[in-house]
Each structure stands twice: as structure tokens, then as C-alpha cells.
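User: I'm putting together a teaching handout on how sequence relates to shape, and I'd like one worked example. Could you take Probable phosphatase YcdX from Blautia wexlerae, show the sequence you're using, and then write out its predicted structure as C-alpha cells right after it?

Assistant: Happy to. First the sequence, then the C-alpha cells directly below it.
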Amino acid sequence: MYLSDIHTHSIASGHGTTCTISDMAKAASKKGLKLLGISDHGPGTLASGTSSYFRSLPFYPRKRFGIDILYGVELNILDSAGHTDLSDELLNNLDYAIISMHRQNYRSGSVSQNTEAYINAIKHPAVKILGHCDDTHFPVDYETLARAALRENVIFEINEASLAPGGYRGDTRANAARILYLCQKYQLPVILSSDSHGKEHVGDFTYAEEFVHQLMFPETLIFNNQLPKLKVFLQTR
């Protein structure tokens, strides 16, 4: 059982999700989580959080239903220069940022162009996690990206929604395996993420957990149960 899930989405992310942050926290508490991160999509996603929403997040309660709450954002990469869809002012007041590519915001280029986009984006000090970069629609050079992540103090996620059957990112297993191999090679931690849109799958790592165990990835490099280390990592800018 893992104790934290920091890639989750509330009603502010759109996508038909109707769950409030309180709904998410209550579900996370019932499942035994100790730390929940709310990372709603940036304003570039249709019907997602506005700038005013992200401006208000630092004033929200830090504890709900007995568990600690962090407030972040899943940023959209907009171009190969690594521009994103939230201002520095707002980013710097959030607990962390996940950086991701989504087809409605970023037009996939060559392997080198996509890799360059990720590398430029993770240079922002608020960015701590590479979101679902196993997506087959955005091919990257994982060796180059892993070295950049190590340099910039950013980690990869292993995304439950990517590995679940029928995912819209294609068959991501080979990419996820490559990520885990390189993370072990460079002793780079990972985080398992549910990517839950709503409360149903909060803290659900069914396929991600099975995958990392099949590949014998060391638990010492999985941050989900290392809460003090995870909090320090997210706070380090």
C-alpha cells in the first residue's frame, strides 16, 4: 500500500469530473492515504482551472479528513521552448508543478524537438515531476531526458492511467520500462501517480505497482511512502 498520491484532479480540471477537493480528500482518507496532492490542469486545458483558482489555492486548508493536502498544478507544455500555461507569479505560490504534454496544447514534433520541450520546461524551479512522458504520441530521447531530470532535480512519474488497459496514450509499457531502467541507472527516484479525475481512482496504483514490481524496481527509489523525503523534494527550488 502506498501512502501518497500527488497527481489527482478535481472539478476544476473539467473533463466531466464533479468531485470537489473535499470529496477527493475524503476518498483518499478512506483509502488510507496520508498525503494527497491536488494537481488540476492549467488554464490551457478546456474548461479547466482559471488563474483566479490557482491564485486562491495557497489559502485553502492544509489538512482535510486527517490527511495532509498539497496544492499544485499539471502544466501544459505549449511549444518546444518549454513555455507553459501559468504565470511565474502563480507557479511560485503553489507547492509543486507537474509538466505534461497534451495533444490539445502541444503539437508533437521530432524526438529531439519533444525532448527539447521537456528539458526547457523542467528548468522552471516550480516543476518537480515529468507527467506521463511515456505517452507514445510524444516520442522522446529518454536517456537525454533522464540526465536533464537528474541535473534539474526533477523526477519521472509512473502513471496508472497510462498503464491501465485501454488507455488513450497507446501501449506505454516499453516507454515506462525504459524510464524505470534509466531511473535505476542514475538512482533517480520516481513517483507512482493515479492521475485520477475524480475520487474513484484516488490512490489506485493497481497497474503501476504491478509494473514496478515485475521489473524489480527498488522500493527505495519510489517516493510514495517516503513522505518526509517527498515533502522536502517538492519544497526544494
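A couple of points you could highlight for students: The chain is about 30% helix and 20% strand. The first helix runs from residue 21 to 30.
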